[in-house]
Design goal:
two-stranded antiparallel sheet; 3 domains; 23 helices; about 575 residues; Rossmann fold
Length: about 575
């Protein structure tokens, strides 16, 4: 008699199943699950992304309407095949169970069909299965799925309530599936926090806020930190509408932020600390604003340093951290720190960069508030405040340019070019040219709106028509940007900040072309919820690195080390070309 292979199939499917969960909502769980799925699909891994959330967030993020969901089932009668519940989204990526599941019975029914009726089909069809679970610790709609997964990715943000919720979720997960591997994905990560809060210590922070009988044993939990993703407004799903104004403010903010961090330079050699401690001090100074009183500032820094290490003091690291804590309080280190902070206090270029950063932060918040219900109106003075703040940074850069290193001068040149772009992006002609490029569809009310799914599809599938239209857009905008740059340089005497070709001394057109290309590329793809559209972006690079590390700990090997996105098939090209032409009109 032939042995039933089902148990072996179930075990094999479990080994390649990753559940993505969180202790609380609003931490970016569904966005993380989607970005991982898209990235792995581009590597050539066949991915089944299971939308277990009752509200089906993945379909919403992807902008999948009824026309694209087709006949996919959700929670009704038993279907004949897995295809009845699968929606092909991109090459190598299917969305499973995309429709809303409005009751616990529907969720548990989905679970039974997923890992019983369809186990054999899923094992054959997919190399990796990702479960996007609802937030919280509900048993029927969340914890019940965990015994079917060998891996659990817990998504959290860098704030205390998220850490406590994540720790509680880990405890519940281990009680349900004791052998599951647990990995932490830190979203909106910020190293320096107020009150000595350690953003890396999720389990420590959880244990500190619960009763002794509820605490987790670190030796038992076996958790691994996989990724630390800095907050990036360009990846914010709340930015559903395309905003050139918001995108250029983000670029200006990034340049000012990098500039003020660069001006911190290295900590002085006579500050006798290890590299991690030096970096912690620099992170603290970079996050804080202007320095009003050197002595008070240094005392607060020392207090933060002490509290940070005290909050990190686990039995494994206690003695090591105690040595570092004592190191900062020596007379030699205290004198070196005060001298360093005193020098920073007088640095006008850094002061102007900090003030510009504050103005730009406020301007971005204004855009966000104006799009919300009951949000405030935008101030007509905002653009003037930005102009004045950035102009002061550039003017101080010109005054000090001979004393600056080449990196800082080039950074100021980048800021100048984005300043020029901020001027032309206020032009209705330029705005209309960019908006016309973005794919659109009719909503149920008959109005044209951004077609997010088609735009994501063009990126993932590497569509040639889309990229050719993008080339024409850049070709039209480039001379306009250079003309505006020349006007600013002449008007404000900013010639020392022009990016130049080292051999000829002429303006470096290739550098400016690359800056324009990167800005437009990021601007037109902001608000999509996927990092694939971002080429030179810190958060995107962190997501990519974390995704690769996660593959390694899971033991899933991609078919190739290179990312080789598939191109659109010949059969699809006439349809897509026609859609692109209609959109252009």
């Amino acid at each position: 008699m032939k042995k039933d292979p089902t148990p072996n199939i179930a075990a094999a499917l479990k080994r390649k199943t990753l559940a993505v969960g969180s202790g609380k909502g609003g931490v970016g769980k569904s966005t993380t699950a989607l970005n991982l799925a898209v990235f792995y699909a581009r590597l050539g891994i066949r991915v089944g992304l299971c939308d277990m959330d009752p509200l089906s967030n993945i379909a919403t993020i992807l902008d999948l309407g009824e026309d694209r969901l087709g006949r996919s089932g959700g929670t009704g009668a038993q279907p004949a095949t897995l295809e009845d519940y699968a929606v092909p989204v991109f090459a190598n990526l299917d969305l499973l169970f995309p429709r809303p599941k409005l009751s616990r019975e529907e969720g548990s029914g989905t679970l039974l069909r997923l890992f019983s009726s369809f186990a054999r089909d899923m094992h054959r069809r997919y190399d990796l299965l990702i479960l996007d679970l609802p937030a919280g610790t509900g048993r029927e709609e969340n914890l019940a799925f965990l015994p079917f997964a060998a891996h659990l990715l817990v998504v959290a943000t860098s704030e205390p309530t998220s850490h406590v919720s994540a720790g509680g979720y880990v405890k519940a997960a281990l009680e349900t599936a004791p052998d599951i591997g647990i990995y932490f994905w830190h979203n909106k990560y910020l190293l320096v926090q107020d009150g000595g809060f350690n953003p890396r210590g999720i389990i420590d922070n959880y244990n500190r806020h619960v009763q002794p009988e509820l605490r987790l044993d670190l030796r038992v939990s076996r958790t691994v930190d996989i990724a630390f993703i800095p907050h990036d407004p360009a990846l914010d799903l709340l930015q559903n509408a395309l905003s050139l104004e918001g995108s250029i403010r983000i670029k200006l903010l990034e340049a000012c932020e990098v500039l003020q961090k660069k001006l911190l330079a290295d900590t002085p050699d006579d500050l006798d600390l290890d590299e991690n401690s030096r970096n912690l001090i620099l992170h603290y100074i970079a996050r804080r604003g202007e320095i009003s009183n050197v002595e008070v500032y240094c005392r607060e820094l020392e207090e933060y340093y002490r509290d940070f290490h005290a909050s990190s003091g686990t039995p494994r690291y206690g003695k090591f951290l105690a040595r570092k804590k004592k190191a900062l309080t020596t007379e030699k280190n205290r004198a070196a720190l005060r001298s360093f902070v005193g020098t920073l206090k007088k640095n006008l270029l850094r002061i102007h960069a900090l003030r510009a950063r504050a103005v730009l932060d406020e301007a971005l918040e204004e855009i966000g508030d104006s799009t919300r219900i009951f949000g405030g109106a935008r101030s007509p003075r905002t653009e003037k405040k930005i102009h004045e703040a950035v102009s002061r940074v550039l003017a101080e850069g010109v005054r000090r340019h001979e004393k600056l290193d080449s990196f800082t001068r080039n950074l100021l040149g980048v800021l100048l070019f984005h300043f020029a772009l901020s001027k032309i992006m206020n032009s209705h002609g330029v705005q209309n040219r960019v908006y016309d490029f973005v794919p659109k569809r009719k909503n149920p009310r008959g109005a044209y709106v951004r077609d997010k799914y088609r735009q994501i599809h063009y990126l993932v599938e590497k569509d040639e028509e889309y990229h050719e239209r993008y080339f024409h857009l850049i070709r039209d905008l480039f001379p306009v940007a250079l003309k505006q740059l020349a006007v600013l340089v002449e008007t404000f005497r900013l010639s020392p900040l022009v990016l130049r070709n080292p051999s000829s001394g002429e303006a470096n057109r290739n550098a400016y072309l690359k800056l324009l290309t990167n800005f437009v590329h990021d601007a037109i793809h902001s608000g999509l919820g996927v990092f694939i559209g971002f080429k030179f972006n810190t958060a995107a690079e962190a997501i990519k690195a974390g995704a690769r590390d996660l593959l390694q700990v899971m033991g899933v090997a991609p078919p190739s080390a290179d990312e080789k996105p598939r191109r659109v098939s010949r059969a699809e090209k006439p349809r897509i070309a026609a859609e692109a032409k209609n959109t252009a009109r």
